[in-house]
């Protein structure tokens, strides 16, 4: 778990990038991270090329159901894309540096923007299961506790020591997302708000869900924010959304309990709509990634 071991330095990451370059005939410009239940997104790519995580030297391996562990390279409307079909979570036992390692590798490959998706519980009573919430901002509960992937010596070849977060989520892409939601009949089901990350793997206690809500969170999940920090540090544009798979329980009187199986089912039912949403956003922002 050492923060500054060779595995994470510029030269080691460049070796991994060079291995990937030797397998893929183009330089991807857009990274899409497929959250739980969103493994169908790469199906939209033309001429896909798949690299399994276990073929890539020192790449972490996926351990969560619904996260296949594959990079899928391909194009969409001429945009060169790489999808991570499977991401890494802190609750899997990986260090915060390991879960964000792919982001810097993608930067070295030429990626200019990251679209991150996640399955999340909703804290905002106006949001329904099956809705989308585009991230306007986040509450980094891991960083409140001192866990931050940018901690440790800063390599300025990636980015500056101190990274602002007040404009982390690209305003133009958020605007496009709302336009697309309207175009595809999702206007009433597409919100904008604040995502809170907790470590997991447990879902929230009633008191925790209430506290996060008081702090200003609209959704809560177990991923995305560390990836956003590293992507912004190295200058990528960032767009992210939560797919709402369950309501967080904020009352002791409720019998319901969140579970991963239901979360996968809910995501599966809406996967075509989510794919359409992502495709159309890429289409409308295409000139930025060519
Ligand atoms: O990768 P994401 O953030 O979509 O995955 C979330 C967190 C857990 O893996 C799972 C909880 O059911 O979904
Ligand atoms: N922490 C957390 N992560 C989730 N991922 C999907 N649903 C939830 C949830 O309710 N809480």
From TrEMBL:
Reactions the enzyme catalyzes: 2'-deoxyguanosine + phosphate = 2-deoxy-alpha-D-ribose 1-phosphate + guanine; 2'-deoxyinosine + phosphate = 2-deoxy-alpha-D-ribose 1-phosphate + hypoxanthine; inosine + phosphate = alpha-D-ribose 1-phosphate + hypoxanthine; guanosine + phosphate = alpha-D-ribose 1-phosphate + guanine
EC number: 2.4.2.1
Gene3D superfamilies assigned to the protein according to its UniProt record, in alphabetical order: Nucleoside phosphorylase domain (3.40.50.1580)
NCBIfam families in the cross-refs: PNPH (TIGR01700), PNPH-PUNA-XAPA (TIGR01697), PRK08202.1 (NF006054)
UniProt KW keywords: Glycosyltransferase, Transferase
Domain Nucleoside phosphorylase, residue spans: 29-283
Species for this entry: Rhynchophorus ferrugineus (Red palm weevil)
Record-stated family: Belongs to the PNP/MTAP phosphorylase family.
Record pathway: Purine metabolism; purine nucleoside salvage
InterPro entries noted in UniProt: Nucleoside_phosphorylase_d (IPR000845), Nucleoside_phosphorylase_sf (IPR035994), Pur_Nuc_Pase_Ino/Guo-sp (IPR011270), Purine_phosphorylase (IPR011268)
GO molecular function, one term: purine-nucleoside phosphorylase activity
Top-level division of the source organism's lineage: Eukaryota
Upper classification of the organism: Eukaryota, Metazoa, Ecdysozoa, Arthropoda, Hexapoda
Name of this protein: Purine nucleoside phosphorylase
One Gene Ontology cellular component annotation held by this UniProt entry: cytoplasm
Any Gene Ontology biological process: nucleoside metabolic process
Protein function: The purine nucleoside phosphorylases catalyze the phosphorolytic breakdown of the N-glycosidic bond in the beta-(deoxy)ribonucleoside molecules, with the formation of the corresponding free purine bases and pentose-1-phosphate.
Pfam families assigned: PNP_UDP_1
